[in-house]
Structure formats: structure tokens, C-alpha cells
Amino acid sequence: MGVAGMKVSVGQFMPNGQIADNLAAMARLTAEAAGSGSELVLFPEEAMFTVGQVEGDFPAAVEAGWSDFVRQLTMLAAEHGVAIIAGGYEPGTEGRPYNTLVAVGHDGTILGTYRKLHLYDAFSYQESRRIMPGDRGISLVQIGDLKVGMMTCYDLRFPELARALTLTGADLICVPAAWFKGEHKIDHWETLLRARAIENTCWIAAAGSTSSHCIGHSAILDPMGVPVVFLDDEPEGLVSTEVTAKRIAEVREFLPVLANRRMIAEPEVTAS
User: Fold this and answer.
1) Of 5, 17, 40, 34, which is closest to residue 205 (Cα–Cα)?
2) Taking 50 as the threshold, does the pLDDT of residue 2 lie above it?
3) Which of 137, 142, 218, 206 is nearest to 173 (CA)?
4) DSSP code of residue 51
5) 157-194: pLDDT as tens digits
6) Nearest to 179 by CA among 208, 158, 205
7) What is the C-alpha to C-alpha distance for residues 63 and 98, in angstroms, rounded to an integer?
8) Inter-residue contact 208 to 227 (CB < 8 Å)
């Protein structure tokens, strides 16, 4: 893999129901990331706006706001020369938008999008009542020297998704989230981030929303699952570190779990 890599930042903030307010927060954090020499800054799920704070009809707000939100991200990336990944809501079908991540290159080019596959129908919440599940599978984009995979929040609880991204070549998996507060929820978040890094021996960058119902706790973890930089529940903050392919190669040299994989055959069922 050589010595390829780049400096990556994760920014957390408190999205509200107004796109302009949220873009202003992202502009502040993007400028800070650019000033630190980062080539990529990652923002939370719902960076466009928080579904519970949108005034009026939610699908109508998505129809009115999505294209301009993406356009503003492309302008912000080009202005600062930094790639951006952020979460928003994309017009869908049947009155249900998609929960979508958009990746923009440092020159403002749209590199790709990812529609959240696993909707948060758990812990007495039902995201699928308002949101359409993703229909395009996994998404991997090239940013600088690294291949970057994308997944969103509840996707973290499904190890096969991170494994699919890794087997497709991801060096870094980005996880924007609006991880709900609750009993054991911070423990789950931190444990699952470490597990996804350890079992795939790849980097994980996670950006958490600090909206009133969310935990924040953004972090970047190395391929051994070590949180290299992290935040707690600060309303707004940014942390950065070098993400390198060299570290992946080092870990996979002494911990070759991907090379040691063996496929398990389907069990035979004997009729009684």
C-alpha cells in the first residue's frame, strides 16, 4: 500500500431545522479543517436539517432544499479545497425521502452518494414511517490517496455492510450519525465503532450530531480500533488526524484476519 494517506477531520455540531444555519456551522468547521491541512471533513447525519425540527411538510421541505444543499456543499468544498461528506434528505418516492450521504471532492465535484440501507426501526423509533430505505447498495469513492466507504448511523449495527465495503477496497469507512441518547447507547456506539475497525483492520471516522436527542462523541479510530482523536458531547467541535494506508498494512501484517477468512458452508438440513 505504500505510504499513501491524508489528513481527515470529523466535525460535530447541532443541526436544527434551518438549512442556512446548518451550512453556516459547516462553513466554520470546514474553514478550520482546511486551516489544519485536512483533505476531507466529515459531518453528521442530518447535517442538512433535523427531521424533528423542520417546519411544515417534511417531504415538501426536502423537495425544496435538497438540490440547493448539495450545491452549497460543492461551493464550500471548492472554496476551501477540502472534500466533504455530509448527510441530508433526498427526494424519494411515496412521500418518503431518502436519508442520503453526499461526497464532494475538493474541487466541488460530486463524487458519489449513499442512501441509508438500514433504517432505524428500533428502541421504540420507526424511521421507516418517514424515510425510504436505500436502494443502491454500498458506496465507495476515491478521495485523495484513499478509497472511502460510506455508511450511516444504524448501519453500524450490521457488520456485513462494513465488511462489504472493506472487501471492495475501503481504506477508511465514514459513519455520519445522529445516534440517539439512552441507556447504554454511548457504550454501544463506542463498542461498535471499535468492532468495525478491528474486524476489518481499516480506519473508521465517525461524525455524531449533538442535537438535543443525540450523543455526539465523534471519533477517528485506527485499524486496531484505537480512538486516535475524539470528542465528547461538545455542541460544536472538530478533531483531525493523519489516516494512512501504511498503518493498515502494518496491522494486516500481524493481524491478517481478512486473509485468514474461511467461508462457512450453509448447514445441511436433514428431514425427519
Assistant:
1) 40
2) no
3) 206
4) G
5) 999 999 999 999 999 999 999 999 999 999 999 999 99
6) 208
7) 11
8) no
Q: Is 246 a catalytic residue?
A: no
Span 78-137, pLDDT tens digits: 999 999 999 999 999 889 999 999 999 999 999 999 999 999 999 999 999 999 999 999
Burial of 4 (0-12, 13-18, 19+ CB in 10 A): middle
User: Which residue's entry shows cell 455530509?
Assistant: 86
Catalytic residue among 7, 116, 127, 202: 116
For residue range 4-50, list pLDDT tens digits in order. Answer: 899 999 999 999 999 999 999 999 999 999 999 999 999 999 999 99
Please give the distance of CA 144 from its chain centroid, rounded to a whole number: 17
- Distance (Å, whole) CA 246 – CA 61: 44
SS3 (DSSP) at 85: strand
In the residue annotation, 45 being an active-site residue is answered as yes
pLDDT tops 70 at residue 143: yes
228: amino acid identity, one letter: V
**Exactly one of 7, 46, 153, 214 is catalytic; which is it?**
153
What single string gives the DSSP state of each residue in 125-174?
--GGGT-BPP-S---EEEETTEEEEE--GGGGG-HHHHHHHHHTT-SEEE
Between 68 and 272, residue with greater pLDDT:
68
Is 110:74 a contact under the CB 8 Å cutoff? yes
Could you give the C-alpha distances from 213 to 47, 53, 86, 228, in angstroms and in order? Answer: 14, 12, 19, 26
**Mutual orientation of helices 185-200 and 159-167 as an angle, nearest 10°?**
30
- Clarify whether 214 is annotated catalytic: no
Q: Which of 45, 46, 90, 190 is catalytic?
A: 45
